[in-house]
Amino acid sequence: MAMGDWVEISVVCDSAAADDLAAYLSRYCAGGAAVEQLRTDPNGRDLEARWRVKGFVPADDEATQQKIEIALLLLSRDGSISEPLTRLLQHRDWAEAWKEHFPVLRMGQRLVVAPTWREHRAATDEVVIRLDPGMAFGTGLHATTRLCMVALEGLVQPGDRVLDVGTGSGILAIAAARLGAGAVSAVDVDPICVQVTAENAALNGVADRVSAALGTLDTGGAPRVPLVQETGYDLVLANILAEVIIDMAHDLLRVVRSGGRLVVSGILAEKAADVADALAHEGLHLDEQLLDNGWAALIATRP
Fold first, then answer.
1. Last residue of some domain: 100, 118, 133?
2. Rounded distance, CA 68 to CA 287, Å?
3. Closest Cα partner for 235 from 169, 186, 280?
4. Same-domain check for residues 94 and 167
5. What pLDDT does residue 137 have?
6. Residue 60's domain spans which residues?
7. What local confidence, expressed as pLDDT, does residue 14 receive?
8. How far, in Å, are 81, 102, 112, 126, 295 from residue 120 at the CA level?
9. Residue 196 sits in the same domain as residue 161
10. 1 in a domain, yes or no?
11. Domain count of the chain?
12. How many helices (H) and strands (E) in the chain?
């Protein structure tokens, strides 16, 4: 096993279980989860009601791999899903392993995410984002990203200053720029994400408005990453996790201007109330809650 290798973990299930399994794997696996419909088995029999759900874990993260395998084994006992299968992928193969399951995606009224390896002829009203996620999280496949994209369509105003915290592949930062934002600061604690975001911004012709850099609002989890110092943003995006959003609620308030808007996602629906309470405690006003497949995004305003 070489440094940078990955383990693919997959199960076969019926359609009713696919979304829940994808949500579970997305909590622990890099880049979320991939879901594919199985049409035939090796003997040619029809399997249209069956799905394969897979996720990827660094091969040296044995604790996470074991946690996932045990959970899936327990779930397989009632026969609703298969026992988990694992296979080792070399570093260069990981990014290729899920590409075949990443389609052209329409989100909201106008936004379309099209991977660089698929052809797409844009309609006149579409705002197309060409994306190569590489090793970074944020393909648009996951509900948390879709929720943010839908929110962006209704919030971005021409010339807005936008901050994207935990930018991943840069998909939200690029969407904000393509929707008319004047300047977007995209920050992440992972240098790979910073690099991928810069490359994707250039690919979409918005490198002059999207600035990608190492940065965080809370140095507790990343002490060597610079703290974001600029404030007064018109719109702040944070598609992270409920617990992280709660911890950085005060800093989210700090960076958004009075009258500015905040979109937070990466929140399991059952934790949305806790996040809303944390934002309210800082004086932010909750405007709307969006739901998608057991996940939530909150839109708030700083009075």
1. 100
2. 36
3. 186
4. no
5. 54
6. 6-100
7. 81
8. 35, 13, 10, 11, 29
9. yes
10. no
11. 2
12. 9, 14
| CB-based contacts of 291, cutoff 8 Å, min separation 6 | 147, 269
Which CATH number does the domain housing residue 241 bear?
A: 3.40.50.150
What pTM did the predictor assign?
A: 0.72
Q: What CA–CA distance (Å, rounded) separates 97 from 246? A: 34
Q: Interior CA angle at 46 toward 45 and 51, to 5°?
A: 115
Matching residue, tokens 């970074």:
136
Q: Please give the average per-residue pLDDT across 125-134, as a whole number.
A: 78
Per-residue pLDDT band for 296 (boundaries 50, 70, 90) equals: very high
26/118 same-domain check? no
For every residue of 7-56, DSSP letters joined together read: EEEEEEEEHHHHHHHHHHHHHHSTT--EEEEEEE-TT--EEEEEEEEEEE
Report whether pLDDT(136) > 50. Answer: no
Over range 8-32, report the average pLDDT. Answer: 80
Q: How confident is the prediction for the chain on average, in pLDDT? A: 85
How far is CA 89 from each of CA 24, 55, 67, 228, 236, rounded to the nearest angstrom? 21, 12, 19, 36, 36
